[in-house]
Design brief:
Blueprint lengths: L32 E5 L8 E10 L5 E10 L9 E7 L11 H6 L7 H15 L3 E8 L12 H18 L3 E10 L1 H12 L8 E8 L5 H4 L17 H14 L11 H8 L6 H7 L16 H11 L10 E6 L7 H13 L5 E6 L7 H4 L1 H12 L1
Parallel strand pairs: 4-5, 4-6, 6-7, 7-8, 8-9
Antiparallel strand pairs: 1-2, 2-3, 3-5
Amino acid sequence: MKIRSTLVWFATAAMLAGSGVLGPVAGAAPSTSIEPISRIIDGAYAGYALSYWTTDEHGRPARARGQVYIPSGTPPAGGWPIVSWAKGTVGVGDSCAMSTALENRTAEDPMAVELSKPLITNLLRSGTAVVSTDYIGLGTSDIHHYLNSVSAANAVTDAVDAAADMLPALSRTWVAAGHSQGGAAALTTGARAGMYGAPSDFRGVVSFAPSSNLEVLLPLLSPTTPRIAQLDNVTATLIYILHGLEDSRPDIHVDGYLSDIGRAYVTQAEGSCIGALREEVIGVSPQQLLARPLSDSAMASALREYLSVPTTGYTRPVVIEQGLADMVVPPAATTGLAAALLASGVREVTYRPVPDATHYDVVAATVDDAQARILHMLH
């Protein structure tokens, strides 16, 4: 079990031997480390495991890990352009992270990684490098603040700079893209690109089924909220959110809002990756997790600050792809998000509802369209 509200400070000076355009830069900042991996995604010529510093939602330094995949061939002048891919939900425990799967050669890649492979493979084959964060707290000593939009966006941004610092074959021209949890992270990255991170050539956002508007839904829940079957899909998500919020906002005293059942699930959240947790909570409504309404002003405010996807601040194109058969991220929520972006004056917003696509196949169903849009942004 990780220690809550404790920031573990460390840096590594370990650098790999090697030279050439794909090798790490000699003398690069010791706070970033990178090493080759043998288990790489189809379409990649080389892959690296990355460990780097970023900042959480409170501006505190935090460690994150991720992966870097390099295309085949000779890099163009200025280096390979980058897509910073934000993964979908894997869980909140270290065992769920892609970095852990790479270290454990017998482990399967997380489902969220499998869902993104059609697009990532195509991008690599088109001459685009891919950098993918595991977020703060997955494979590191911190608690993962699940669905906190700011900390996730910081990790997405800083992964690009960390990778480009280490690998001279990479440029700093990049696009943020992601699915589900990562779709929200990619959008928040776009809203914050002008005010966070080192100067770089940021080109836009492609977001698939982004988690959004949960800060509107969750305050409607209480122990006495009538049971609605469709809300049972929220149970696992709520457990992970409250697990992260408990560490991010100790002043809210999340424990006081939980029933005995809710307390047990939140306490044990790190032990179940998303597929297993969804199986465990079949038949458990989100209302059963609660002893008090989440509409309490302090909790509602905390949820809004913790979860909200920005609807202003975008200066580059935004593309949102949403399956209309999605039972995890309701199409109505994404439609509301797109409408809010347009209403707030974001000029370059493309919203593509995709008939028959579910939460789990929307990336594969839209790969040709999404790839074309990403390449247009980058070039």
